[in-house]
């Protein structure tokens, strides 16, 4: 193993090269190496300056996140930063790649900073449920002023080198290798007689109304604490001497380190990276994808085509009629229009995507050369089978055939072709060019390289891809159906849809289930209720009050009325009093006397239903690991990231208490609340869902 920090001398310059691949994370060896390196340079006769840079793809990308939650070991990162700044030698950092978190804090503790034009920097700790904890909240505002520092710290966004220079975060931008531009800069500084310069010695920044900034930040982050703590830390930079400000930053940092939110967000960070790694695909090469086809250019087909075009893939879109094909083009243009307006897409690029890269057709013969097809026609098995029969007829051998079905049996679709090994589900979420989640449905006969091709396509489109097995609704929609049913039961028993939505948005969900139903269209649930009615178990409790609203043509946002009433041009609605009347009438008809629900009970029941179904999904192998469920809910269903996902939440709550809840609810409704065998097993063995994640590697 090479040393974490390599020491080298060039003339009167000492060079500290970080070499801890892949991202030069600042683990214990790196911290020790930096302190030792500075001390060695100071003791090295004739050394006047020190250059710090990173080997490989980046400067330091931050503290080593894998150390969080363990006992911190000295030297601590803030002390390393202060040690660097206190050196009598001139210390220069040369940045490339991503200088993030503790990485940027090391740079801010250097006396001068230079970066290559492509370098990106920032303090992303809020995304880990933390604040910068190595003097960043104290040094950054001294350079940028308070408002900009708060914006950078609370958003955690990455800043390009040019902007960083304009904000005063770095001194110089230069093309070249970090070592070369760094050495040239150090030489310039030495030649011009530049002096050591310490950010901590700059005057404290001007204060603002911190209480107002704190409240505004807390509101914006929907219950996530870390951004608001960032405001308090910057306040300390204004109000306290530097060393005391650093101590206050450390106190806030350590407080956040002890929270469930920090655990949830770090779980999300690692799960996001683990979810696409499947041991069975190790060494399996995906098939090459150079051109794709999309069948059906409605809401989903147009979104999928947009996503593929943006990923640089030419798309042939097949519709039933030329008019429907033109309507699909309009939808795609609409999808790209926002980016065009915001200047994120040039007119030239827009034209190239919508005209050159996109081909519209009504003939299957135009599909004979494509490498992969995604079907997004109406959700009817008969229609899908006809489409797949046509694809089977025209597509070249080896072409991957995918369905975007939400619920239908992909095994049955595959069986309608002569090449079931080439068939899989690619379940996108609406709007498909925006939503990050992609469920990759591994059907009974899907070949490993076809599954690998699905993951490769997902990666190319910038999606979070999650493998799912075949069942009604796969991972996400199957679990959704269960917790939505739990909510419906609570409505029959006395809660209002509005109280439920409010309790869940307060919990951190982007939207409550009834606002979501209005957005998706109430006609979808209505059609499902009608479809399932003949086979329904008599013990199932299914409310019918919304059927009446649907019969009158009210389908939610798209018709202006549903659970909520939507004024033209407004996305948020106000409660629809008709719904309340319909609910009351149904309760009376069923002889139910409504009772009060606390917000806490609403959340416990809703989450218990979600966790219980999720445990069944994992137990049955529909999801490989608990973390797969967590990522589906985070990226497709607005689950608050700071809670990590439903199964991480369950672990943090304690599984025995959750199982007790489920058993107590089962005393009222034994049919609905059947405990998941996996949950019972974990409780019996004293294990957690995370133990299963770890066991899966
Ligand atoms: N600590 C430990 N491991 C890290 C890490 C870190 N800070 N950053 C990345 N890694 C690991 C990843 O888990 C991944 O491991 P794997 O190959 O086993 O899955 C590997 O490094 C490569 O990472 P990515 O796949 O994410 O590579 P990308 O090139 O896509 O992205 C990146 C690189 C932009 C640096 C991205 O990894 C990233 O955002 N990392 C986190 C940066 C961060 O949050 N830094 C702040 C840390 S907190 C802190 O510094 C506290 C301080 O203020 C006290
Ligand atoms: P849609 O009704 O908006 O679009 C369907 C399109 O398919 C229409 O433009 C129609 O003209 C076309 N079409 C129908 N039969 C065809 C055929 N035989 N050949 C060519 N084109 C044909 O429907 P939407 O919402 O886009 O759904 C499509 C599929 O995606 C369904 O399977 C649905 O379950 C699934 N899905 C829908 C989601 C949503 O939120 N709307 C989310 C995820 C999946």
Key features of this structure:
single chain, 697 residues, alpha/beta, 2-enoyl-CoA Hydratase, Chain A, domain 1, Rossmann fold, N-(1-d-carboxylethyl)-l-norvaline Dehydrogenase, domain 2, 3 domains, six-stranded mixed beta sheet, 19 strands, 49% helix, 11% strand, globular, binds 3-hydroxybutanoyl-coenzyme A, binds 1,4-dihydronicotinamide adenine dinucleotide, NAD(P)-bd_dom_sf
Give a quick rundown of the structure.
This protein has about 700 residues and is of the alpha/beta class.
Would you identify the CATH architecture of the largest domain? Alpha-Beta Complex
Based on secondary structure, the structural category is alpha/beta
Average pLDDT value? Answer: 96
How many domains comprise the coordinates?
Answer: 3
Helix content: 40-55%
Description:
- The chain is an alpha/beta fold and 697 residues long.
- The strands form four sheets. Strands 12-11-10-13-14-15-16-17 form an eight-stranded mixed beta sheet, sandwiched between helices.
- α12 (299-310) links the parallel β10 and β11 (315-318).
- It is globular.
- α2 packs parallel to α3 (102-109), α5 (146-155) runs antiparallel to α9 and α12 (299-310) crosses α13 (322-341).
- Bound molecules: 3-hydroxybutanoyl-coenzyme A and 1,4-dihydronicotinamide adenine dinucleotide.
- 3-hydroxybutanoyl-coenzyme A is lined by residues 22-23, 25, 61-66, 77, 98, 100-102, 105, 124-125, 128, 132-134, 136, 273.
């Amino acid at each position: 193993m090479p040393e974490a920090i390599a020491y080298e001398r060039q003339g009167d310059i000492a060079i500290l090269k970080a070499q801890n691949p892949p991202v030069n994370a600042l683990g214990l060896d790196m911290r020790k190496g930096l302190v030792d390196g500075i001390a060695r340079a100071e003791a090295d006769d004739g050394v006047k300056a020190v250059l710090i840079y990173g080997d490989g793809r980046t400067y330091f990308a931050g503290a080593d996140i894998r150390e969080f939650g363990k006992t911190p070991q000295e030297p601590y990162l803030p002390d390393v930063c202060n040690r660097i700044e206190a050196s009598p030698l001139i210390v220069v950092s040369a940045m490339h790649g991503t200088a993030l978190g503790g990485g940027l804090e090391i740079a801010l503790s250097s006396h001068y900073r230079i970066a290559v034009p492509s370098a990106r920097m920032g303090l992303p700790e809020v995304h880990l449920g933390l604040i910068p904890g190595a003097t960043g909240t104290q040094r950054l505002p001294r350079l940028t002023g308070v408002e900009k520092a708060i914006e950078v710290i609370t958003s955690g966004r990455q800043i390009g080198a040019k902007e960083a220079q304009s904000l005063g975060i770095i001194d110089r931008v230069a093309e070249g290798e970090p070592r070369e531009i760094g050495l040239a800069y150090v030489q310039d500084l030495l030649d011009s007689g530049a002096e050591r310069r310490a950010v901590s010695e700059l005057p404290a920044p001007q204060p603002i109304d911190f209480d107002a900034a704190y409240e505004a930040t807390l509101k914006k982050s929907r219950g996530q604490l870390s951004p608001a703590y960032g405001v308090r830390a910057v306040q300390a930079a204004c109000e306290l001497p530097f060393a005391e400000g650093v101590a206050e930053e450390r106190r806030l940092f350590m407080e956040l380190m002890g929270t469930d939110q920090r655990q949830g967000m770090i779980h999300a960070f690692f799960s996001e990276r683990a979810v696409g790694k499947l041991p069975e695909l190790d060494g399996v090469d995906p098939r090459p994808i150079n051109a794709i086809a999309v069948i059906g250019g409605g809401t989903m087909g147009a979104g999928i085509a947009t996503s593929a075009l943006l990923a640089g893939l030419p798309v042939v879109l097949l519709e039933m009629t030329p008019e429907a094909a033109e309507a699909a083009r309009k939808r795609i243009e609409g999808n790209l229009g926002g980016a065009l307006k915001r200047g994120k897409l040039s007119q030239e690029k827009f034209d190239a995507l919508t005209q050159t890269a996109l081909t519209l057709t009504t003939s299957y013969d135009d599909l004979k050369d494509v490498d992969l097809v995604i079907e997004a026609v109406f959700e009817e098995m008969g229609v899908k089978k006809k489409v797949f029969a046509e694809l089977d007829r025209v597509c070249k051998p080896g072409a991957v055939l995918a369905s975007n079905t939400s619920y239908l049996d992909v095994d049955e679709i595959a069986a309608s072709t002569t090449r079931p090994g080439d068939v899989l589900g690619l379940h996108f979420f609406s709007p498909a060019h925006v939503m990050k989640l992609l469920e990759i449905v591994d059907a009974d006969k899907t070949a490993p390289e076809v599954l690998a091709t699905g993951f490769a396509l997902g990666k190319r489109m910038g999606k979070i891809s999650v493998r799912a097995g075949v069942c009604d609704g796969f991972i996400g929609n199957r679990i959704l159906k269960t917790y939505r049913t739990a909510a419906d039961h609570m409505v029959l028993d006395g809660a209002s849809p509005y109280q439920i939505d409010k309790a869940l948005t307060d919990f951190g969900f982007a939207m409550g289930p009834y606002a979501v139903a209005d957005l998706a269209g109430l006609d979808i649930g209505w059609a499902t209720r009608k479809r399932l009615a003949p086979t329904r178990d008599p013990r199932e409790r299914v409310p019918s009050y919304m059927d009446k609203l649907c019969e009158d043509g009210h389908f939610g946002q798209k018709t202006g009325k549903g659970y909520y009433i939507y004024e033209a041009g407004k996305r948020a609605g106000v409660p629809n009093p008709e719904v309340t009347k319909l609910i009351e009438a149904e309760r009376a008809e069923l002889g139910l006397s409504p009772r009060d629900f606390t917000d806490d009970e609403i959340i416990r029941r809703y989450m218990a239903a979600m966790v219980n179904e999720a445990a069944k999904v994992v137990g049955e192998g529909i999801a490989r690991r608990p973390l797969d469920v967590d990522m589906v809910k985070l990226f497709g269903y607005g689950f608050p990231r700071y809670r990590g996902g439903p199964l991480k939440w369950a672990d943090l709550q304690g599984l025995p208490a959750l199982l007790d809840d489920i058993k107590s609810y089962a005393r009222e409704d034994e049919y609905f609340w059947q405990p998941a065998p996996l949950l019972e097993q974990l409780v019996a063995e004293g294990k957690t869902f995370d133990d299963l994640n770890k066991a899966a590697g």
